[in-house]
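WARN no homologs supplied; continuing
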Amino acid sequence: MHFEILVEDQSGKRALEILVPRIIGEDHTSRIISYKGIGRVVPQGMRSASEASRRQLLDNLPRLLRGYGKVQGCPQTVILVCDLDDRCLKAFRKELYGILNHCHPKPEARFCIAIEEGESWLLGDLNAVKKAYPRAKDVVLNGYVNDSICGTWETLANAVYPGGARSLTGKGWQAIGAEKSKWAESITPHMCIETNQSPSFGYFVNKMQEMAGMV
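OK structure emitted
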């Protein structure tokens, strides 16, 4: 099985480049494609030229899924990985499956949503965080509730970044993005796939292995 994995940013791509081979093994292939943010779903016919040209994940999702649906002869599954942020999970899933169901033919696809943000998957393994950042603040890490809506990246920043989220935020979004990529590169090599405590990460692992015929 080949997996086309669509992610909303570079930090997600870097994390999955490390994790996916460990999840599906050597008998399957994958390609991870990152976008410049999550964007938004725009109803058909209401998309402006500027929106169509933006390299943001949800803006391009209808076109991408239609294209994958037309691919013949290669068994593949499309996996969308994105953050929930402040959306309603039920409504967001309904919106995504609405896009998929309008594709003719329809590709094999799964939607895996990090709750609240991708950093929740890193915080699902506190041992991995501590191995990557031995001086991480235990009081912050131990107060985190898995997959809670709490400002997840800020929580990780408060645990591992000098001066915490406030200091990092003051440096702007480019600095935040760069630091998120560093966290992904540093923490994911230490993560244990089987014992991660993030329910949304467990869902992602289960779907990947299910499609790979491993469960």
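The longest helix spans residues 10-24.
OK
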